[in-house]
């Protein structure tokens, strides 16, 4: 059964033009609004249904950040709700450079995530790929996993023993 798609209110416009068509002031609307809107788009477009039935999903940089139940906010240093595609997950992209962008951000995130949340730091030029059976590091650098009080670093080609549950 195909989902029914609603006509776009933005007619393909992006950024400020889309905000104007939606009568939204992007400077005064909180990030939580945009997260809720993005999650609704995922649900209404059938992405969530597709994922539950084995479709592929890729995200890099901010796209990877948004997949978890919480996401780090680099500018403010806090946490926000993510799209919740994976339960109890927080992804930090550009991990090898993130503390240069905002000093102490890694520790801020680790201190702020809810108990039981796995934090995954993915270095630049690196990916964490699930092939249907296991998560594997691909690319040039490493992936860090912070779980409970343990910090583990995984090299390219290594399997990462993550047990992530789909859906928040």
Tally of helical segments? 6
Classify the beta-strand content into a percent band: 25-35%
Described by the principal axes of the CA atoms, the overall outline is globular
Unreliable residue runs: 1-8
> Which percent range fits the helix content?
25-40%
Provide mean pLDDT, rounded: 78
Largest sheet: 4 strands, mixed
Based on helices, strands and strand pairing, what is the structural class? alpha+beta
Determine Rg (CA atoms, Å). 17 Å
**CATH-derived topology of the largest domain:** Rossmann fold
CATH homology superfamily name of the largest domain: Class I glutamine amidotransferase (GATase) domain
Number of distinct beta strands: 11
CATH class of the largest domain: Alpha Beta
Name the quaternary structure: single chain
